[in-house]
Amino acid sequence: MAFGEFDLIETYFTHRLPQRDDVDLGIGDDGAIARVPENSELVIVTDTMVEGVHFDRETPARALGHKVVAVNLSDLAAMGAEPAWISLAITLPEINEEWLTGFAHGLREICDYYNCQLIGGDTTQGPLSVTVTAHGFVPTGKALRRSGAKPGDWIYVSGTFGDAGLALAARQHRQQLNPDYQRKLTERLYFPSPRVALGQSLRGIASSAIDVSDGLLADLRHILKASHVGARVSVDEVPLSLALTESLSEEQALAYALTSGDDYELLFTVPEAQRGLFDTVTAHSPSKPVCIGRITNEAEVVQLLHNDEPWQLPDTPYGFEHFRPLADTSAE
C-alpha cells in the first residue's frame, strides 16, 4: 500500500487514541480547539528525541512511542499539572508500516493510561526525530516551580536512581550485567513512569520541584540556581535498586545514581512546617519519596556527605547537557 502524509495520519494517529470532552476540534484542521477548565492555568511542555542523540536504531518503536510522551508528562508532573492533550511532530526517513504500528501502539498505551488526547501535529520526511508538546492543567496559582526552595527545606526524591544510565551503559558495552538485571533496567530506560499523581499531591506542599532527566545533581543545581540557595546531600540516602548495587562497586553505583540521566523521577523540597501533611498525603504512594538532604543558604553550593563525612564525587560530568564541549568531562 502506498502511503502519503494524510494516509499516514489517518491510519496511525487519528482514531486510535483517547477522545476527551474538552476537545472541540482535534486532528484534521489547521488547528485544534480545546477548553481550559475554569480557575485553571495551562502548563505547556515540549521535548524532542533525535535518533543518534536520544536513542539508537535498536530502540524498539513501541518504546520510543511511550518514552516521547512519558518525558513530557514527567515535566508536567514536576509542575503539579494534570495531563490533557499532546501534539506530535514526527520526521521519518521512510514509511515503515511495522515501525509505525509499534510506535503508535506505544503512544496509545501511555495516552490511554493518562487520558491524553492527540490533538494535532505534523509529519515530514527526513532523519528520524520525534517532538511532542504536552498540555496540562493546574489550579490557578498552584503550579510547582523550581524557584521556591528556602534554607531549611528538606530535599526529597521519588524512585531509584542510576538504573537507566546503567542500562544504557550495558547496551553500549561499557558495563556487563546479569541478564535478569539487564532486562529490568532496560525496561526502566525504555518505559519510564512519569510521577503524575505524586506531582499533583505536592501542590501546596512542596516549595520547589523538578523532574530528573539530566542527572540528580545536575537537576538539583537547577533548583539551587533558580532559588538562590545551596544544598547538603547525604549520598547514603539516595535510593538505589538492587540491580545497581549488586552490579557495581559502591563508588560506581553512587556515580551512576548522582550523574546519569533518564530517570524521570521527581526531586522536590518540603518546608519543615509541611512535613506532617506531606507524610500524610504520600503515605500510600507507590513510589514512596525519600529524604536525601536539606537546603542551605550557601547559594548554588552542593555539599556531599558519605557516612556523615565530606565526600568527593568521582571524576565524572554532572549529568547530560546538549552542546557540552567534548573536553569538559570533570565534575564542578
Automatic annotation (TrEMBL):
Miscellaneous comment text of the record: Reaction mechanism of ThiL seems to utilize a direct, inline transfer of the gamma-phosphate of ATP to TMP rather than a phosphorylated enzyme intermediate.
Record: residues binding Mg(2+) 2: D47, D75
Residues the entry annotates as binding Mg(2+) 5: D214
Similarity comment text for this entry: Belongs to the thiamine-monophosphate kinase family.
Protein name as it appears in the record: Thiamine-monophosphate kinase
Keyword match DNA repair: no
Catalyzed reaction equations: thiamine phosphate + ATP = thiamine diphosphate + ADP
Gene that encodes it: thiL
Limits of the PurM-like C-terminal domain: 150-299
Domain (PurM-like N-terminal) ranges: 28-138
Molecular function terms, GO-annotated: ATP binding; magnesium ion binding; thiamine-phosphate kinase activity
Biological function: Catalyzes the ATP-dependent phosphorylation of thiamine-monophosphate (TMP) to form thiamine-pyrophosphate (TPP), the active form of vitamin B1.
Gene3D superfamilies in alphabetical order: PurM-like C-terminal domain, PurM-like, N-terminal domain
Keyword annotations of the record: ATP-binding, Kinase, Magnesium, Metal-binding, Nucleotide-binding, Thiamine biosynthesis, Transferase
Pathway: Cofactor biosynthesis; thiamine diphosphate biosynthesis; thiamine diphosphate from thiamine phosphate: step 1/1
Binding site for Mg(2+) 4: D30, D75
InterPro entries documented for this protein: PurM-like_C_dom, PurM-like_C_sf, PurM-like_N, PurM-like_N_sf, ThiL-like
Binding residue positions for Mg(2+) 3: D30, D75, D211
Binding site for ATP: G121, D122, R146, S213
